Amino acid sequence: MAHLYISDLDGTLLDSSTQVSKRSASLINEAIGRGALFTVATARTPATVEILLKDIDLSLPAIVMTGAAMWDHRTSRYVGERLIDDELSRKAVAIFREAGLEPFMYCINGNMLDVYHHGPLTREEQAFVDARSGLKLKEFHLDSSLLQVEQAEGVILIFGMGDNELLSHIAGNLDPDRYSVSFYEDNVSTLYYIEVFAAGVSKAAAVERLAAMTGADEITVYGDNLNDISMMSVATDPVAVANAKPPVMTAAARKIASNDDDAVALDVAANFLSHEQ
Prior knowledge:
Blueprint: E1 2-7, H1 9-13, H2 22-33, E2 37-40, H3 46-52, E3 62-64, E4 69-72, E5 77-79, H4 86-98, E6 104-109, E7 112-116, H5 123-130, E8 138-141, H6 146-150, E9 155-162, H7 164-172, E10 179-185, E11 192-198, H8 203-214, E12 216-223, H9 229-232, E13 237-240, H10 246-251, E14 254-255, H11 263-276
Parallel strand pairs: 1-2, 1-12, 7-8, 12-13, 13-14
Antiparallel strand pairs: 3-4, 4-5, 6-7, 6-9, 9-11, 10-11
């Protein structure tokens, strides 16, 4: 009987300083070394996942970009990526622009992620870019023309940030039969994010694929934010950290301590030990 453990990153495995503590890394590595099937599921891209998880010896692929792909740390390659159809990508860009927001276009090119954006950045967008620039697996192209954004190829994610009302309007104009839309509040600000993917993309679908790959019939999922609820719904053991948003608490079967208390790592270690005995 195989048991799969999957944790969200921000607000869940990562502490308030956006780091994996040394204690958490040690506990998780010990469990992995003894055979625990552990990985993460995050909205982040491999460019930052590689840095944040540098002290964890992941043997399983990480679920990245809200399930649009997996990332194999051992081979530095994307696995099972789901791209947005070119025509649907152009239609989504038009919807963003009609609302007055220029999107970021994330495009896979081998193991690289090229990100295209047209026009000036808001202060929040600039801070977002600055925090993610200079990474070996991602390159921003902030001088892109209107046409370069519109005709981008290999698009895996269309991303925007702003207030609730603006992004709610955009989300409401995207056909749910043609796109998967993830719309949620940032953990550390009043901003909201919108992520547009190919239809059928979700953390839940990726968790089910990974469970099939590993032969797992038990799945423990840890989360804190609204975009974690889908994967919690397919888990046999959905778990919320103490700092989780109220809807996540409702979706969980049990609650643990906060992300600043090494809660996920402690729970994985204890849970895996009880299954070993």
